């Protein structure tokens, strides 16, 4: 029986607790809704209390007074049905961007900007008039039966003491501000000192680690210097190799060029001057730029030379070549508007002699002429 009573009490307490918790959550939710609504009305109030917003609304009402009257005191009998079909038609025909936005905005800005200036000017003018009236009144009543002169003297003393007192209060406030500023600076310095002390402690704790790591860093630095030296040496060798492989200047000089093609009956010799890849045909004391050497490659291990000669478009379109018999000639027509390619695959026999093939059909020889 006692267990049943205890169970009944616990069940009742639990139900009461659940009900109170549900009521508390409902109250909190209601308060949240009320706070949100209050914030909305507060924002609306702030917008309406803005001088610029209020001035804009007032200016809009004045500039569009016909629309305002039509909205507030709408009377269908006063609207001419021949001109306007409805109140909306009346509003549409009596509004335009200038009167509905630009002019009210200009008037609102002017009022917002000039209103404080005018108010201060009126206040200054009233104060000046009051001061002048007070001084004139004292001057007029100075010689009366009432001892005004004595009053003026006391007033001057009072004004002087007032100025001294105001100065003392001002100096006192300044001294207080200086003290507060110095106190604040001192607190900042104390915080900085505490931070520096903590940093120093951490630095001392790291000092042992840094000291132990310094040796490893120094060893790594020495190893890096050794590897860097080896890398620079290898890079220098690669650079020299690249310069030797692609060094087209090794062809610079004057050469005796021979070409033989038994199939086409071509056998001739020319004197060529090569300078930086440009090929010139030497004829007596004159020379003609006839082609350019590109894509130069030199295989130093196998002493092989490869390059392509590009003929220039301005070279004469008709060339005469002598046959292998020596007593007959034939004319070969060449299109001067196109660039012709001559692929040279040569062997470097010595520094002064190269031989090989041109376009794999002609045997060519380059023999350097000493003294040029």
Give a nutshell description of this structure.
It contains six helices and ten strands; from the N terminus they run ααααααββββββββββ.
Topology at a glance:
Layout: H1 2-48, H2 51-63, H3 65-72, H4 87-93, H5 97-140, H6 148-245, E1 253-261, E2 266-275, E3 278-283, E4 286-299, E5 304-311, E6 318-322, E7 329-333, E8 341-350, E9 353-358, E10 362-368
Antiparallel strand pairs: 1-2, 1-10, 2-3, 3-4, 4-5, 5-8, 6-7, 8-9, 9-10
Helix pairs in contact: 2-5
In round numbers, the mean pLDDT is: 78
From the N-terminal CA to the C-terminal CA, the straight-line distance is: 133 Å
How are the strands of the largest sheet arranged?
A: 1-2-3-4-5-8-9-10
Question: What overall geometry do the principal axes of the alpha carbons give?
Answer: elongated
Round the Cα radius of gyration to an integer and report it: 54 Å
CATH class of the domain at 248-368: Mainly Beta
Low-confidence stretches: 1-10, 316-334
User: Could you state the order of secondary-structure elements as H and E?
Assistant: HHHHHHEEEEEEEEEE
CATH architecture of the domain at 248-368: Beta Barrel
